[in-house]
Amino acid sequence: MEPELRHSVIGAGPSASVPRKETSGVQGRRTLETEQEIIRRCLAGDMSAFRLLYETHKNVMYNVALRMLRNEQDAEDSVQEAFVQTFRSLARFRGESRLSTWIYKILMNTCLTRLRRAKPSAESLDGIENGGRNRLSAGNRDGTAKMILEQEIGNLPVGFRTVFVLHEVEGFSHDEIAKMLDITEGTSKSQLFKAKRVLQKRLRPFMEILEAY
User: Under a CB-based contact definition with an 8 Å cutoff, are residues 139 and 109 in contact?
Assistant: First the structure.
């Protein structure tokens, strides 16, 4: 497990988070100018601009989708679908948020739609108490803490998982998350707090077992 992420979930309080890059005012203006130019070129039919947009965001979008959907093919399909919707809807972008925030909002809607259509997971949300120790004792002791963390993130309720992945893994601010998910910043912060609390409870027995080997 990455030290920063483990610290934010297990060893720190609810307000802890993964360090993220700060954007200065000058950098922010340059980003805005660059986004406006890309939008202008895309709307003018410049496919190289749309490819640039795709190449800029595809990897992070795939990582987010994979953590949300827990299926590689579904994640790939969701990213493709999100970019198709982006291309079709770009003329309606009003610049009320960063372009990247708008694109990720489309991706999150795509992922959440897939999750609503999917069958519920067969694994209980209380699996940590009932099955966590068995998974390790059945020959999986060589599994890393990172793998366990990824699994337990995937077992979070959808709302908790969404905010946790966007904030703690991908480094989006609560303001950006609120715009992506059409929720308030307060709701985003509350969901993150609850997600961390659940993960702390679920990961503690795993950490005790791992530290014993």
Answer: no
Q: Give dist(CA 195, CA 191) in Å, integer.
A: 6
Can you tell me the distance from the alpha carbon of 93 to that of 91, in angstroms, rounded to the nearest whole number?
Answer: 6
Largest separation between any pair of C-alpha atoms in the chain: 61
Can you list the domains of the chain with their CATH numbers? 3-211 (1.10.1740.10)
Looking up tokens 């027995």 gives 205
Q: What is the mean pLDDT of the chain?
A: 76
Tokens standing for residue 19:
């360090």
Say whether pTM exceeds 0.70. Answer: no
Rounded Cα distance, 166 and 162, in Å: 6
Do the Cβ atoms of 100 and 57 come closer than 8 Å? Answer: yes
